């Protein structure tokens, strides 16, 4: 039990630029979870891969239980600085809807943009739920049985061990095979297909360059649903340290929670950023996170899509706002704004989303103005607080 005034072990006191950037999107910085033997044993059935780190996620889930993160308002957005490999890990916990993937993609792109990457592309695939993935795995086995491509004993053993090694090996035969292989998207359940459709609507609605990548499969023992990666594209590929590798990779890992002791399966999604700050750029350390004076309320899916783009626009202008993106009910959002005692609300409902506007309301006087979204940063900067 903590003594009066004592900080919990997970709370951090210093913040670098990526942690500050993530805070604009509602991510709370925490200390990097420490991996122990129990975490390693609990995930020994999972493939060890740089992009799909089940053991580190197990450490976070254990921290979630030990530090009673369940008592905090959900959905819960967390970020921490990774030590090995160096980078950042962002997690969205408690959101079954596509807002989790959308928020992770948008925040990762913003962090990478602050590091100097200008041309980035998001690649996505969907492997669906457990049943969808099982159906796809069976189809891949059937495909390989019928294939006439000659394989070495080593490659045959790799596919026998895990058929999804087809998408991880870089031998010429494997590259040829996966070019002809069926796509996981064709084997999605109805629910999984609808979820992926919503993710794509968010990505498209934010104006992000994206494409489908059937080779993004994840790790079958704990990955599910949307798997996405961010690459440098165009001219920026030449300046990236590893132009053919992903700068970030994300996916859902909800199945791990129940296996590790949670009473029920809790929606969990994450993205790991592997890129580091560019050499020669000094890393400033901040003692406090930005303190918002506005509360952004969104009502409806169209408004939610607009909201993520708006937060990014306000972030670029260094205008932080409180928000509760994972919750849709007006009463919950208003209650949160009342607790935070903010003087102004920014409201985007269905009409505002269609019109490309926002309503700014003074909580004390009830006076309000309807402002085009493009003019909102300038309007907010001239409000006397």
Provide a descriptive summary of the structure in words.
The protein has 385 residues and is α/β, with parallel strands linked by helices. The chain has three domains: 17-128 and 189-273, Bira Bifunctional Protein, Domain 2 (BirA Bifunctional Protein, domain 2, 2-Layer Sandwich), CATH 3.30.930.10; 130-186, no CATH class; 294-381, Anticodon-binding domain (Rossmann fold, 3-Layer(aba) Sandwich). Helices cover 37% and strands 18% of the residues. It has helices spanning 17-24, 37-42, 54-66, 99-114, 130-146, 153-161, 172-180, 190-205, 236-239, 255-259, 301-316, 330-340, 350-355, 376-381, and strands at residues 28-29, 76-83, 86-93, 120-126, 210-212, 224-232, 248-252, 268-273, 294-298, 322-323, 344-348, 357-362, 368-372. The strands form two sheets. It has an eight-stranded mixed beta sheet with strand order 1-2-3-8-7-6-4-5, with helices on one face. A five-stranded mixed beta sheet has the order 10-9-11-12-13, sandwiched between helices.
Any idea of the CATH class of the largest domain? Answer: Alpha Beta
Calculate the mean pLDDT score and round it.
Answer: 91
Number of helices: 14
Q: What number of structural domains do the residues give? A: 3
CATH architecture of the largest domain: 2-Layer Sandwich
Name the poorly predicted regions.
none
Give the topology, please.
Elements: H1 17-24, E1 28-29, H2 37-42, H3 54-66, E2 76-83, E3 86-93, H4 99-114, E4 120-126, H5 130-146, H6 153-161, H7 172-180, H8 190-205, E5 210-212, E6 224-232, H9 236-239, E7 248-252, H10 255-259, E8 268-273, E9 294-298, H11 301-316, E10 322-323, H12 330-340, E11 344-348, H13 350-355, E12 357-362, E13 368-372, H14 376-381
Parallel strand pairs: 1-2, 4-5, 9-10, 9-11
Antiparallel strand pairs: 2-3, 3-8, 4-6, 6-7, 7-8, 11-12, 12-13
């Amino acid at each position: 039990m903590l003594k009066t005034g004592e900080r919990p072990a997970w709370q951090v006191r210093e913040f670098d630029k990526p942690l500050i950037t993530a805070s604009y999107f509602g991510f709370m910085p925490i200390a990097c979870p420490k991996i122990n033997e129990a975490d390693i044993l609990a995930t020994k059935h999972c493939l060890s891969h740089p992009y799909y780190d089940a053991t580190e996620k197990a450490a976070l889930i254990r921290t979630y239980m030990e530090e009673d993160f369940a008592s905090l308002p959900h959905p819960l957005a967390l970020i921490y600085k990774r030590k090995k490999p160096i980078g950042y890990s962002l997690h969205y916990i408690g959101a079954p809807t596509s807002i989790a993937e959308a928020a992770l993609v948008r925040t990762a792109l913003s962090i990478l943009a602050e590091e100097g990457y200008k041309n980035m592309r998001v690649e996505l695939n969907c492997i669906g739920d457990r049943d969808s993935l099982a159906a796809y795995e069976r189809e891949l086995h059937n495909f390989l049985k019928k294939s006439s491509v000659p394989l070495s004993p080593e490659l045959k053993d790799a596919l026998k061990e895990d058929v999804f090694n087809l998408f991880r090996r870089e031998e010429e035969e494997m590259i040829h095979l996966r070019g002809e292989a069926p796509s996981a998207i064709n084997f999605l359940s109805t629910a999984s297909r609808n979820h992926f459709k919503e993710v794509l609507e968010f990505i498209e609605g934010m104006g992000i360059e994206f494409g489908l990548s059937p080779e993004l499969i994840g790790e079958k023992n704990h990955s599910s649903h949307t798997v996405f990666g961010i690459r440098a594209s165009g001219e920026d590929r030449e300046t990236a340290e590893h132009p053919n590798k992903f700068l970030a990779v994300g996916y859902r890992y909800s199945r791990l929670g129940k296996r590790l002791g949670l009473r029920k399966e809790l929606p969990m999604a994450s993205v790991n950023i592997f890129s580091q700050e560019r050499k020669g750029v000094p890393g400033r350390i901040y003692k406090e996170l930005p303190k918002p004076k506005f509360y952004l309320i969104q009502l409806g899916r169209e408004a939610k899509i607009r909201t993520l783009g708006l937060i990014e626009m306000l972030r670029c202008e260094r205008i932080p706002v409180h928000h509760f993106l994972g919750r849709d009910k007006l009463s919950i959002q208003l209650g949160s704004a009342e607790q935070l005692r903010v003087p102004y609300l920014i409201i985007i409902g269905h009409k505002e989303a269609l019109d490309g506007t926002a309503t700014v309301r003074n909580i004390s006087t009830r006076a309000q103005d309807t402002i085009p979204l493009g003019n909102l940063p300038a309007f907010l900067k001239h409000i006397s607080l």
